[in-house]
Amino acid sequence: MIPIDLQILKYIFMEKPIYYFKMKPYFQTSEYHDLCMYITNRSDTQNSDRLDKRDYTVFDLETTGFLPEIGHEILSIGAVRMNGNSEKLDEMHQLIKPIRPVPNHILSLTNLSRDALNQAPSFLEGFQRFLTFSENSTLVAHPAHFDVRFLRAMVKRWKLPEYSPPCIDSQQMAKYALPDVSHRLDPLLHYFNIHSLERHHALNDANMTADLFSELLLIMKKEHNITTYSVLQQLLNRQKS
């Protein structure tokens, strides 16, 4: 694997201009300008601070790497819409066409094919679908500091308006609620006896994370008397700091 400092130099001097050249035609389209307006005017406010009265979009990304800041891209988004009573309301799975070629080991890990990815819509179209799906909900990811950060970095790369959705990090919740259990997804699924689906498939991982999130919400309510989003966020922010 190329050392990270060389990856950064390669991105700055070789790949970043290629990204911009290939994205530039999209910036002139009406779809791009409509998406900019949608993000600017979009509201993620909810009617209640109570955790059991909110809607959630539990999501997962499959990507070409861990560092969007040096050109790694999103290949697929899986998302599950659920309410505060742990009822799953809807789900979506969206492939996204990457700008740059996908490494073979990533295709093998995600079980995605080049043909399917080449026929998929652009990030702009895929992100628009995700925004519509998740509107007026709180995002949940495991860990959110990866998935939400990745989305925001992609938004910045595509020169879209700033995207700062309300979100909950289920990994941080697990660290607080179950300090003696590994906070990685697989051990937590085993701990709660959650049915395991094929991993590294965005929708499968989102469904399993949704089941895990439901269990963590119950622990927060019954064992720690945490029933509001604002209190939960204060607790998780203190834990991170």
Automatic annotation (TrEMBL):
Keywords: Exonuclease, Hydrolase, Nuclease. The keyword Hydrolase applies. SUPFAM superfamilies: Ribonuclease H-like. GO terms for cellular component: cytosol. Pfam families: RNase_T. Residues 55-222 form the Exonuclease domain. One of its GO terms (molecular function) is 3'-5' exonuclease activity. GO terms for biological process: DNA replication. Coiled coil: none annotated. NCBIfam families: dnaq. This is DNA polymerase-3 subunit epsilon/DNA polymerase-3 subunit alpha. It comes from Salimicrobium flavidum.
